[in-house]
Write a structure and sequence with these properties.
Order of helices and strands: HHEEEE
Helix content: 40-55%
Number of helices: 2
Radius of gyration: 27 Å
Mean pLDDT: 75
Shape: rod-shaped
């Protein structure tokens, strides 16, 4: 009977090691996928008016940005000229 317990413990140990190894790989893959998703979200966020207008808030407040100088309606900071301003698909310098 003592041999049965040793065999069972050995099998359980092997199974635990296999599960731990398998889960570690999945965690790394999901973290990498999460990082890619964050990068895509940041890129798509930069498509908003607060990034593409001729004048933008230095804080890039959501919904801010204008074709004319002024102040941000959210935080009150003065708009600055957007060096990366594009209109009609090309840069205006």
């Amino acid at each position: 009977m003592n041999t049965r317990i040793k065999n069972f413990a050995g099998i359980a140990l092997v199974i635990l090691i296999l599960l731990a190894t398998a889960c570690k790989g999945k965690t790394q893959e999901s973290n990498e996928a999460g990082t890619e998703q964050i990068e895509q979200t940041e890129e798509t966020a930069k498509l908003g008016k607060e990034y593409t207008a001729a004048y933008v808030c230095p804080m890039h407040c959501e919904g801010s940005g204008s074709d004319e100088e002024g102040t941000c309606p959210k935080c009150g900071m003065a708009y600055v000229a957007n060096e990366e301003h594009t209109k009609d698909g090309h840069k205006h310098e």
